[in-house]
Amino acid sequence: MQVINHRLEGVPYDAAHTIGGTIDPKFIVMHYTAGYTMKSAVDTFKNSVIAAQITIDRDGSAIQMAPLNKKCNHAGPSEWMGVKMLNGHSIGIEFVNIGFAKMQGNGRLVDSYGKVVNVNEAEQYIEAPNARIGSGRIFWQPYTEAQIAKGIEITKAILSAYSIRDIVSHEEIDTRGWKTDPGPAFPMHRFGALMRGVENVASDEPLKGMTGTVTTASLNIRGGAGTNYPVIGVTKSGSRLGIIEFKDGFYRVHTSLGGVDSTGWVSAQFVSVL
């Protein structure tokens, strides 16, 4: 797949109702539609100010609704890497997925609209808490492999066409504190790995290509896997690190020292890997 004149080759195009001015995309933002069907997402984008450039259905089919270099209202109030209001700096990819559902006292799962989730579907849901949702047992609809495969194909095409700085979730860029997409069922590590030229991250190799977030105020980057190695740099709380390998309680990570791409080692104790 290629990007030709800011459109994805081989992907149907149907213009959204609201398409903004020209942008120079620096980020890719991943979302879930919070709905059950592609049609519901397309109808929303055709009849409101909300839109994303690309939507991927559960069967792996996709639709493009705005040129990749045009602004869409998908990110809302947001900030990442010093850039604010990412609508004007990013490409939004929506995946058809309801997001989360909450377990009721009767054992049923109810989605955010109050609809009871189909029993067969619920058996596959992934339980994971989220502070933004609150207490109770929270379950997340899984994404299909067809969706993820199409998402990876599209993301690779975008990375080849634009100078993308990072691939992020809506949750981590949201400055209002309530967005949760694409959620813990989404394999963000597989997409983050594409930024480093790593593909086909196997489930039995969870660290290769995964992203970790620094959880302490500052964290030393060392020349080897141990505190006996010299400190070659420092990273701060909230920094996201591309993980290469794990050894003796340390992660080897991608870093930039003195403006030069390099690698170093950080204590795994202070890095959260999702």
Could you characterize the architecture of this molecule?
With 274 residues, the protein is an alpha+beta fold. It has three domains: 3-98 and 143-194, Lysozyme-like; 100-140, no CATH class; 211-273, SH3 type barrels (Roll), CATH 2.30.30.40. The protein is built from five helices and 20 strands. A five-stranded mixed beta sheet has the order 5-4-8-3-13, with helices on both faces. A five-stranded antiparallel beta sheet has the order 19-18-17-14-20. The model has no long low-confidence stretch (mean pLDDT 90).
Note the topology.
Blueprint: E1 3-4, E2 7-8, E3 27-32, H1 38-46, E4 54-56, E5 62-64, E6 79-80, E7 83-84, E8 90-95, E9 100-103, E10 109-111, H2 119-122, E11 126-127, E12 138-140, H3 145-161, E13 166-169, H4 170-173, H5 188-194, E14 211-214, E15 218-222, E16 231-236, E17 240-247, E18 250-257, E19 260-267, E20 271-273
Parallel strand pairs: 3-8, 3-13, 4-8
Antiparallel strand pairs: 1-2, 4-5, 6-7, 9-10, 9-12, 11-12, 14-17, 14-20, 15-16, 17-18, 18-19
